[in-house]
């Protein structure tokens, strides 16, 4: 045994995370335990041990302290590797044991809720973000003081609740190293170590664009830095980890007049007047009584648009989802009567079973001659077995619901053989099946869902790539500083949101939250791209952490990965809608949004505008997929929004075709 | 390798996530969600009395290979575990293209270990050990058969990979001060010349 000295110990510390079920099957919505700061020969170690695991050998002898995606786990080196003897390891609490070496710490956030309970979030150098520890009986300040004895802590200028570990920052930011390697590969620059000089003298058009963005953001940054001590509006009583929306608010605070005219020929003509994000009201879910009152005597929804808005505002009560989702997913037309719905159900039932029969009646010989079918069948069989098996609905051997999953996916493969089955579809089907609890209904709702999301699953992934690229374009407009930072760190492909977007946040929120978020998005209100705004709100909330920690590409990816189940949905929805309202306001004002932004957020309006302003425009294709052509249209002198004039012949369209800057002379 | 797999005619994926979990967490969890994107794992090990933190990326099923993100995946990786399933011949057949991909985008010194997983299911073996060995010999890889279920050789696979990387640092092939190689010197005892306390990052992938 290694000698350990306890430097700090505090009980009654809680993790409020996703609900877990303990070994007795009791659901726990918080995990209590004790935080220790200990010192042993390996250094100073911070450790959280959940109640009930105090007596398991915590393996102070271990040489393996692990940071494992979501958790840091230790075990005894000499532990028997025989799987039976590790049965204690199946306690769901095990993944809530955390420990890390103090020198792996990058920064600490400490929040107070309105009830006075403080919580602390530890973020490690590799981007790992631990869940918030709530100090129900106090002690967080003591712990902070204790840590401050060993590490140099400094409060962030931009966020008074963020403590940066100064010792942890690399003396030479690693971004330089990464950027250098990339740039060297491009042979764009002479030898030199100063990334700033590279930045300025780069001959590549993307850099030039970025540089101009950064000009624009000087104003934002000035406003940003001027707000040292914002009241903690991000704290709230709901508990859980509050994403730092303050930084979002801060970055919009104050009127930022982006008018700039200087002797290098730049003139910013547009004015961004982002004050703070508007207040948005959200409601309780629609109740059964309320729902019933929405129908006329024929069972027809009287005012579909207002129903959609109402669902957007508060979602549906659980018991209403079975009905409501059928409308949202176009199984039932919004103007259908009760009688027509009975007919539809009957007809769709027949249709489903005849398609199901198609694959069920295939002979082995037939399958032998159809590689594609056989591959998909085997993939579906594999994936069904590992779809949400922790949810009660799919638990246990020989669970009948697994067969339903399987049959629906197989039938969908027959229904849409061009797309077929691609991994991730199983994730999307699972909640639909649970809500419908009926094979045929679940199938047709899944069809509706795939009509929305099927493009994500094309093998060339062009759609999802474009979505991510649009996300970066929007970010450039809303927070150019952060967009630039990501670009500098090889993260402008926004890959860290790949899973979030591919399966529409399915793995990132609790099951109940996913249901609400999905129905909110399915209303198509206030816009079809609301999911992009949700991503943006999340990203902007993490700006301070990402930038002040000087996270590089890998750390950013890991940090965003670790946000799963840690973001509170309601505040997030409010922020995303706030972003929408501001964008919309700008679109409607003169001169409007930059065309490239407009074409992502308001494709229909965009088309109309272009038609008005460009005589030669006859392109009717989807505006979001033709950003480059819309960008080039901005050369038209008659269309005046958001333009920076430059008297030299500069290239302004970056690799994402997301130029906001256009030369006109 | 999933419990179910033994009862039915189909197998599961090659077991990348199971291998990682067995290594970092020392448990076998046959039922887990399929990996989308990247999952991370890490563990401290000791080689020659030096503490080394292995950071392991559990990456992608094959569908994402088109994402053109390979470069970010391989960049900064000092090692890779290339995994196939001994009970599924087609996973072995995919190795060549996967290896080409890995070699194309990574540091040429990246240590690659070939893993034939699920060796506990010897009754359903489709790929002979000799075939794996021959492939490894031909392509200059280290080779091992493992079982994430029984933990056989799991430790060895990761640790041998790390040992190999460590050896390359000692030989001066990897420059531990250059993070592009996926190696970072720990802050406490940093001593670039001897490569003391390096943290290496190993990346693994495979085909499904």
From TrEMBL, chain A:
Query: What InterPro entries does UniProt report for this protein, alphabetically?
Result: Rab-GAP-TBC_dom (IPR000195), Rab-GAP_TBC_sf (IPR035969), SGSM1/2_RBD (IPR021935)
Entry's Gene Ontology cellular component terms: cytoplasm
- The answer to whether keyword Cytoplasm applies is yes
All copies of the Rab-GAP TBC domain together span 315-525
- Region annotation (Disordered) maps to 611-665
- Which residues, by range, are in coiled-coil regions? none
Intracellular or extracellular location(s): Cytoplasm
Keywords of this entry: Acetylation, Cytoplasm, GTPase activation, Phosphoprotein
What residue spans carry the Polar residues bias annotation? 655-665
Question: Gene3D superfamilies attached here?
Answer: putative rabgap domain of human tbc1 domain family member 14 like domains, Ypt/Rab-GAP domain of gyp1p, domain 3
GO molecular function list = GTPase activator activity
Return any one Pfam family short name: PH_RBD
Subunit text:
Interacts with non-phosphorylated form of RAB8A; phosphorylation of RAB8A at 'Thr-72' disrupts this interaction. Interacts with ARMC12.
Protein role: Acts as a GTPase activating protein for RAB7A. Does not act on RAB4, RAB5 or RAB6.
What protein name is recorded for this chain?
TBC1 domain family member 15
Species annotation = Didymodactylos carnosus
Lineage of producing organism: Eukaryota, Metazoa, Spiralia, Gnathifera, Rotifera
From TrEMBL, chain B:
SUPFAM superfamilies, per database record: P-loop containing nucleoside triphosphate hydrolases (SSF52540)
Q: Region labeled Disordered — which residues?
A: 182-208
The record's listing under Gene3D superfamilies reads: P-loop containing nucleotide triphosphate hydrolases
Alphabetically, the GO molecular function entries are: GTP binding; GTPase activity
Q: Which PROSITE patterns match?
A: RAB, RAS
**InterPro entries reported in the protein's UniProt record:** P-loop_NTPase (IPR027417), Rab_GTPases_membrane_traffic (IPR050209), Small_GTP-bd (IPR005225), Small_GTPase (IPR001806)
Q: Where is the signal peptide?
A: none
**Record-stated family:** Belongs to the small GTPase superfamily. Rab family.
PANTHER family linked: DRAB11-RELATED
Task: Supply the name of the protein.
Answer: Ras-related protein Rab-2A
Q: Which organism is it from?
A: Didymodactylos carnosus
């Amino acid at each position: 045994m290694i000698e350990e000295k306890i430097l700090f110990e505090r009980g009654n510390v809680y993790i409020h995370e996703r609900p877990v079920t303990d070994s007795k099957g009791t659901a726990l919505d918080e995990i209590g335990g004790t935080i220790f700061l200990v010192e042993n020969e390996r250094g100073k170690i911070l450790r959280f041990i959940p109640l009930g695991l105090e007596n398991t050998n915590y393996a102070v002898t271990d040489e393996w302290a692990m940071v494992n995606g979501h958790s840091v786990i230790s075990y005894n080196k000499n532990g028997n590797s025989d799987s039976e003897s590790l049965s204690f390891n199946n306690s769901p609490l095990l993944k809530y044991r955390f420990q890390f070496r103090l020198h792996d710490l990058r920064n600490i956030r400490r929040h107070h809720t309105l009830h006075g309970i403080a919580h602390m979030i530890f973020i490690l150098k590799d981007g790992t973000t631990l869940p918030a520890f709530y100090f129900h009986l106090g002690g967080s300040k003591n712990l902070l003081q204790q840590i401050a004895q060993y590490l140099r802590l400094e409060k962030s200028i931009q966020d008074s609740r963020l403590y940066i570990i100064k010792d942890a920052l690399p003396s030479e930011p690693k971004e330089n190293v990464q950027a250098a390697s990339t740039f060297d590969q491009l042979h764009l620059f002479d030898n030199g170590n100063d990334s700033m000089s590279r930045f300025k003298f780069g001959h590549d058009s993307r850099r030039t664009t970025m540089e101009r963005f950064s000009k624009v953001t000087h104003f934002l940054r000035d406003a940003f830095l001027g707000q040292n001590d914002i009241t903690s509006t991000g704290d709230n009583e709901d508990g859980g980890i509050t994403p730092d929306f303050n930084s979002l608010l801060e970055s919009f605070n104050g009127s930022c007049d982006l008018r700039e005219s200087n002797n290098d020929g730049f003139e910013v003509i547009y004015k961004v007047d982002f004050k703070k994000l508007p207040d948005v009201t959200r409601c309780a879910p629609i109740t059964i009584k309320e729902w019933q009152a929405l129908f006329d005597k024929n069972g027809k929804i009287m005012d579909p648009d207002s129903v959609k808005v109402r669902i957007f505002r508060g979602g549906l009560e659980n018991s209403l989802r079975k009905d409501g989702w059928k409308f949202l997913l176009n199984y039932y037309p919004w103007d259908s009567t009760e009688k027509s719905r009975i007919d539809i159900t009957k007809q769709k039932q027949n249709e489903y079973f005849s398609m199901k029969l198609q694959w069920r009646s295939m002979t082995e010989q037939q399958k032998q001659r159809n590689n594609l079918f056989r591959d998909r069948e085997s993939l579906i069989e594999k994936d069904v077995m590992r779809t949400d098996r922790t949810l009660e609905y799919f638990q246990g051997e020989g669970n009948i619901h697994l067969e339903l999953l399987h049959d629906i996916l197989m039938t969908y493969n027959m229904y849409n053989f061009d797309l077929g089955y691609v991994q991730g579809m199983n994730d999307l089907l699972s909640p639909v099946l649970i809500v419908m609890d009926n094979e045929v209904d679940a199938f047709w709702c899944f069809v509706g869902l795939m009509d929305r999301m099927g493009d994500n699953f094309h093998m060339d992934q062009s759609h999802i790539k474009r979505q991510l690229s649009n996300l970066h374009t929007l970010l450039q407009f809303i927070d150019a500083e952060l967009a630039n930072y990501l670009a500098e760190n090889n993260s402008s492909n926004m890959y860290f949101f790949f899973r979030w977007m591919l399966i529409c946040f399915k793995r990132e929120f609790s099951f109940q939250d996913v249901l609400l978020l999905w129905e909110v998005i399915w209303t198509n209100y206030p816009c079809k791209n609301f999911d992009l705004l949700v991503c943006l709100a999340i990203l902007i909330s993490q700006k301070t952490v990402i930038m002040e920690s000087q996270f590089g590409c890998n750390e950013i990816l890991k940090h965003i990965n670790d946000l799963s189940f840690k973001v509170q949905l309601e505040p997030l929805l409010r922020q995303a809608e706030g972003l929408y309202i501001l964008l919309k306001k700008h679109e409607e004002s003169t001169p409007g949004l930059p065309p490239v932004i407009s074409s992502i957020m308001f494709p229909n309006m965009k088309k109309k505008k272009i038609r008005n302003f460009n005589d030669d425009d006859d392109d009717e294709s989807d505006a979001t997929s033709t950003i480059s052509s819309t960008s080039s249209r901005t050369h038209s002198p008659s269309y005046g929004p958001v333009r920076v004039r430059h008297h030299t012949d500069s290239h302004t369209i970056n690799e994402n075709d997301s130029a906001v800057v256009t030369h006109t002379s | 390798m999933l419990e179910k797999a033994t009862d039915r005619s189909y197998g599961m994926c090659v077991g990348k996530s199971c291998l990682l979990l067995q290594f970092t967490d020392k448990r076998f969890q046959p039922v887990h969600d399929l990996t989308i994107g990247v999952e991370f794992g890490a563990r401290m090990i000791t080689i020659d009395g030096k503490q080394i933190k292995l950071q392991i990326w559990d990456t992608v099923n094959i569908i994402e290979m088109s994402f053109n993100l390979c470069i970010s995946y391989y960049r900064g990786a000092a090692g890779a575990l290339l995994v196939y399933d001994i009970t599924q011949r087609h996973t072995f057949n995919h190795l060549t293209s996967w290896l080409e991909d890995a070699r194309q985008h990574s540091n040429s010194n990246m240590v690659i270990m070939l893993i034939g997983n699920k060796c506990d299911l010897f009754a359903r073996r489709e790929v002979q050990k000799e075939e794996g060995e021959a492939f490894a010999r031909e392509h200059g890889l280290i080779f091992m058969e493992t079982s994430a279920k029984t933990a056989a050789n799991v430790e060895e696979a990761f640790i041998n990979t790390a040992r190999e990387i460590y050896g390359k640092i000692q030989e001066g092939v990897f420059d531990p001060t250059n993070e592009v190689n996926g190696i970072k010197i720990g802050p406490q005892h940093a001593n670039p010349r001897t490569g003391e306390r390096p943290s290496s990052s190993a990346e693994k992938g495979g085909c499904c």
